[in-house]
Amino acid sequence: MVDYDIVMIGYAGLEGSAFIAEKKQDILKNRYPSFFISKAIAGKNRLTEDEKRILAEPLLSEAAAAGGSGESGLYKLGQAGVFMGLWNMAQAAGVGLEIILSQIPIRQETVEICNYFDINPYHLLSGGSWLLLSQSGSRTVQMLTQKEIPAAVIGITTAGNDRVIWYDGEKRFLEKKYTDSIFQIR
Question: What are the chain's domains?
Fold first, then answer.
C-alpha cells in the first residue's frame, strides 16, 4: 500500500458547515448575505446527492479492491473530519502519509463559516466524503470529475508511520485523536 495516491472525494467539513449554517442562521445573517447562508445549508442536500452517485460508481469498488483485501482502499469520512479520517485510514492500511493541505477540497462557504466561529474545517464533520487509495490517482480523479463527482489527489502513502501534513512549506504531523470542531459551536 506504499506509494498509493490518496484521493479525496467530496469536500472537507461540508456536512458540519451545512449543519452550523442551518442552526446559526440568525448569527450568520449579521455578516453574510442570505444567498450565502442558503448555499451553505444546501450543502446538506448536495451531500445526499453526491453520496448516492459516489456509492453507485463502479470505479470505487474496483479501486477499493485494488487497495487490498475487501474495502481497505476506501474510507468514509465522518466525525472529527478529514484529519481524523486520514489518521484512521493510515492506521488501518499500516502506512504513513504525505498530505498537501492546499490540495484538500473545501468549499468557500465552509472556510467562511469556520473562520467566523474560529474552528478548524479539517476537524469538522465531513460525512458524505471519502478517502480512496489509488494506484493512479490522477486517472481516478479524472474519471470521477467527468461524472461530476468532486475529487482531488491530496497526497500519497509512505513507508513507516509518519503522518505528515505539508502547509506552506512547513511540515506538521497528524495527531492520533481529534475532537470534532462542531462541539466548539455554542
Answer: 5-184 (3.90.650.10)
